[in-house]
Amino acid sequence: MICDLRLCTALLLSTALLCMACTGDDAPADEEDETGMDPGPDTDDEPLFIPLGTILIPGGEVWRGCLMDDKDCDANENPGGMINVSAFFIDEHEATVAEYRRCVDAGVCEETADDPDCNLSRSDRKDHPVNCLSWNHATSFCEWRGLRLPTEAEWERAARGDQLQLYPWGDDPPTCELARVDTCGNSTAPVGSVREGDSPFGIADMTGNVSEWVSDFYAADYYSESVGEDDPQGPASGSEHGVKGSAFTVPPGFPAQRISKRNSASPDSTVRIYGVRCARDR
């Protein structure tokens, strides 16, 4: 059979194109892979490891210290001002009794005092924050988890976010719906049980429940010595470390509830209001 000239020409062209596709000669360099997804550019970057139970706090500016219209500030909160803090991870909740118990059972962390005021000695408070911790206890616990204590600047960044506010939730005075304060019961509460008072980043119990150790050495004049400093780490030395966040023993509306409030204690102090929240570099 003799084919029509136009039909034969079309068949020859189709055959040539098919052969070129089989050899891949004209396949584009960024062709999709067999899954149908664009493989994208090659990269040697490792995937981001997110520590269990933590939230990523983006880097940015935060107002550290006394707000300009806050009349309850102590001298050690001045001068207030903007500082830059790099991205980091921080625990969504304060460390619980159950979490700290695992560290004790691993032979790394020390027992707290055998006292009814210390939650580790109570079988009914496994989901409460561990308390009666010294700075040394807190540091050992975070290191056991492959983490560290947050700096004071990181703590304020996580509590305040991008807002100029007195408390993690805003400017309204504390209530039992916002924080575990002394009028809500003479004890701690399960971590994360008062979520209306979360910080802008969704961090629970940054006011109330237990106070939290930070990594920094403490100095009353440190804010005036580090104005405008990026990622401030605290003084190079000292006899005490910083403590942030008020506790279940503090009355609502008392100035200690404010984000900028600064406290300190000896690293071996084990007062019943001291607990821990861990952090890590991004």
Please describe the topology of this protein.
Layout: H1 5-23, E1 54-57, E2 60-64, E3 81-85, E4 88-91, H2 97-105, H3 135-144, H4 152-160, E5 211-217, H5 222-225, E6 241-244, E7 263-265, E8 274-275, E9 279-281
Parallel strand pairs: 5-8
Antiparallel strand pairs: 1-4, 2-3, 4-9, 5-6, 6-7
Question: How would you describe what is shown here?
Answer:
The N terminus is likely disordered. The protein starts with a helix and ends with a strand. It is built from five helices and nine strands. With 282 residues, the chain is of the alpha+beta class.
Brief sketch in words of this structure:
The chain is an alpha+beta fold and 282 residues long.
Number of strands: 9
User: How many alpha or pi helices?
Assistant: 5
Pattern of helices and strands: HEEEEHHHEHEEEE
Radius of gyration: 28 Å
CATH class value: Alpha Beta
Largest beta-sheet characterization? 4 strands, mixed
Assign the structural class, choosing from mainly alpha, mainly beta, alpha/beta, alpha+beta, or little secondary structure. Answer: alpha+beta
Poorly predicted ranges (pLDDT <50, ≥5 residues)?
1-44
Q: Tell me the helix content.
A: 10-25%
List the keywords.
4-stranded mixed sheet, formylglycine-generating oxidase activity, paralog of FGE (formylglycine-generating enzyme), protein serine/threonine kinase activity, 282 residues, 5 helices, alpha+beta, disordered N terminus, CTDL_fold, single chain, Serine/threonine-protein kinase pkn1, 3-stranded antiparallel sheet, 9 strands, transferase
